[in-house]
User: Fold this.
Amino acid sequence: MRRFIVGLLLVLAAAAPLCAQIGKQVLIMVGTSEDKALTEINRTSDPAQKLQLIEKFYADFGKGDTALVAYDLFMNYYLNAKDFDKVLEYGEKSLALDPDNFNAAVTMFRAAQEKRDADKMFDLGKRITAIIARYKILPAPEGYDADPWNAVKAAALEKAEPNVNYVEYTLFNLGFQAQDQAQKIAYLERFATGFPDSQYTGYAEGQLAAVYQLTQEYPKMLANAQKVLARDPDNVNMLLLLADYYSEKGEELDKAEQYVRQVIDLLNKAEKPAELSDEQWQKQKSLQLGVAQSALGQVLINRDKLQDALDAFTAAKELLRDNQITYARNLYRLGFTLAKMKRPADARTVLTEAVSIDSPYKALAQDMLDRLGPARPAKKRPSTP
Assistant:
């Protein structure tokens, strides 16, 4: 990540050439003492000798903007030496001299990542985002027209994009990979609020919605799910989450039914994602369709449309068979519907299966079985004489 430009200025009176980089340009002319010192540093492979040469370069030339060259040399040296505190130390010096030094901030981020210092990583991530935001609105330097300047900016931003993407993905992944629920929430919330324009923010909000569902923090779950849908109205996971929640609670039934039917329509039109095998795609699609049908059944049972609800729960049954929890829940709902339709024998069969599955619905199914009472013995036919 060399922050300096080695070149020959053919027209000394001309303005400095535009360069597709973010931050100050430091021009070092060929043949100067600085150039010779840098050449010697780059040719030296012995670490101890290289450090001595860098320190000498800083002592001799580390005045004004040329100090940025020395700081860059120190940062890269200490990054290779895995002395990450030193990388951060010289990085702060570089940013103090040039707050828009994009490469220095990215190098510091990598050092903080190596240290596993999440707070520092988030701090540097926000500073990197701010550098990019300032650069995007930076006017053309005096003496340059807008068109070439805009082309230079576009090239610099394109060059910076892989590093920006790396920083944002790494910060999102801190939350995504966290095993502790509280830590996961903290990281994801920090990312979603600190990087609202990132391509990963929608994923972070979706993850938060799912985690808040598990922790039963439903207002936060709903808020994050709605944020995702504001960005992506056809997000199947969030549509399902909201439809399932509303139907289970017996609230917002019109909205729940709208979401369910939207999911079914989307899934019926969906093509297999390239990263999934045929088997994986069928399992995922079956589970999502099954949850949608079961949610639709809940909407209909709340509206006392028993036969329609029965049809929906029956359709969900086979679709959910590979997922123990949702399958057991659907069995309980199916048994409840059959009982309400005055079909106790069929209800007992379904509820008995639900009781046989170790799930949160086992006790509920058993309670309903108890209320149904034992099955009546079949009537004996009169014997013929």
In short: The first strand starts at residue 4 and ends at 7. The domain at 1-172 is CATH 1.25.40.10 (Serine Threonine Protein Phosphatase 5, Tetratricopeptide repeat).
